[in-house]
């Protein structure tokens, strides 16, 4: 039996980004969630805690063992959402923010927005997504992805975590060695909190650039969890 894989996207994205990975995983049961912190209306965006509630609801809807994967900002979300009694067998941090209680994403990057963030009163846009997110991704898929990028809630990166799931649930960190959004050295530092560390020679979106390779890393985790 293979565990169900729950995929939690990062900032500015949605469940649309998982298509190539889902195809590469074949018959693996996959569930996705769209986070309330991403959207087109700045006034309607949720924060980290609303995102965590969405993940908790998705986990509760899965029968049997589940592995939860958080990508980028999604790592903070799953860390906030998952508890020891949630039924989650394993956590996967995919070039993600594996934070501790009291930490926020903005605080982790030094309290100042990176230059490619377009910070507004209530939301954040992104500059040069082609370079930051999609290095190594086929050109047509990059174009399609850029067109689907949403706005990210400013609150979501400011709110501190009140839970650290990786302290209660086994975890694996996947370092993406060519990432232009979260430098590999920063990933390596956060990966020290994980029980196991794997690596991919990929940019920030390996589910688009290296779906088969990523699926190959995930299958053994899912098989063990099942």
Helix and strand content put the structural class at alpha/beta
Number of DSSP helices?
Answer: 10
Element order: H for helix, E for strand: EHEEHEHEHEEHHEHEHEHH
| Average of pLDDT | 97
Shape, principal axes of CA atoms = globular
Features of the shown structure:
globular; four-stranded antiparallel sheet; six-stranded parallel sheet; 35% helix; 226 residues; single chain; alpha/beta; 20% strand; 10 helices
Topology:
Blueprint: E1 4-8, H1 19-25, E2 30-33, E3 38-39, H2 48-60, E4 66-71, H3 73-81, E5 88-94, H4 105-108, E6 117-119, E7 123-126, H5 129-132, H6 139-148, E8 151-153, H7 154-158, E9 171-176, H8 184-191, E10 196-200, H9 206-209, H10 211-225
Summarize the structure.
The protein is an alpha/beta fold and 226 residues long. The protein has a 6-stranded parallel sheet, with helices on both faces. Strands 3-8-7-6 form a 4-stranded antiparallel sheet. Helix content is 35%, strand content 20%.
Q: How does this structure look, described?
A:
This protein has 10 helices and 10 strands. The chain is of the alpha/beta class. The protein has a 6-stranded parallel beta sheet with strand order 2-1-4-5-9-10, sandwiched between helices. Strands 3-8-7-6 form a 4-stranded antiparallel beta sheet. It is globular and about 45 Å long.
